[in-house]
């Protein structure tokens, strides 16, 4: 019996040590349901918590009042794969802040106060699969190269923001994109929207509700219309493509104008030269007559 008691005591000591270590590494205001998860949801935080374990993999910071993320915050958390910053007070993300998160798979920045997504915001987070940027009421600009390098991104949420236009390049550079949400934005049906409209019609299978859930306002009177009521012909006046015949006409016209200009210059020069010779001859005849 004695050996069994010794083994039981050893197991209890080890368990106590593990539990003590987990409690010791967990931020005071947060919960740590497992060794690699830190849950600080709804704790009224006004800044990022201190003493986050370096081996954290899931960091939950939703429903707080965090205004910013230090640019070097994620440098030490190389194992982080899941970051939830939903419903905070973030107004911007400094370029490069997330570029060190090489293993980040899920990132939620929804329901914040972001105003723009500039180039380099996400670096080249090649492991990122799902990115949530929806419900940012002041988000009105997304750089065309904002998502450059996100080669594994499958789901992108940009719904219910303040976007009136979006460069197609921002979406076409995502080779793994399967789902994109763009509904609820104040799109404007002008020539800047024409390319995006064509992309949406070609990729409507990537929209959860197709184009049925999307609207845009007419530039003339601001009236909202469903994209289902539009077609490529609606943007016919925005098309500025040239056919081969048009290009040949332009080239031929340019050459013709150049030739005519050269001939005109030669004719004028010859005329001036002849006039000068005639003037000299006339003057010489008058001098001889006077003598």
UniProtKB/TrEMBL annotation:
Q: How does it sit in the membrane?
A: Single-pass membrane protein
UniProt domain LRRCT: residue ranges: 185-239
Start and end residues of each LRRNT domain: 25-58
Per the record, the domain of life is Eukaryota
User: What molecular function terms (GO) are annotated for this protein?
Assistant: potassium channel activator activity; transmembrane transporter binding; voltage-gated potassium channel activity
Q: Where in the cell is it found?
A: Cell membrane
Where mainly located?
membrane
List keywords of the entry alphabetically.
Cell membrane, Disulfide bond, Ion channel, Ion transport, Leucine-rich repeat, Membrane, Repeat, Signal, Transmembrane, Transmembrane helix, Transport
Q: Which Pfam families match?
A: LRR_1 (PF00560), LRR_8 (PF13855), LRRNT (PF01462)
TM stretches of this protein: 247-269
The record's section on InterPro entries has: Cys-rich_flank_reg_C (IPR000483), KCNMA1_auxiliary (IPR051432), Leu-rich_rpt (IPR001611), Leu-rich_rpt_typical-subtyp (IPR003591), LRR_dom_sf (IPR032675), LRRNT (IPR000372)
Span of the signal peptide = 1-23
Gene Ontology CC annotations of this record: voltage-gated potassium channel complex
Subunit structure, interactors included: Interacts with KCNMA1.
Q: What is this protein called?
A: Leucine rich repeat containing 38b
Provide the species name.
Sparus aurata (Gilthead sea bream)
- State the taxonomy lineage: Eukaryota, Metazoa, Chordata, Craniata, Vertebrata
Q: Which gene encodes it?
A: lrrc38b
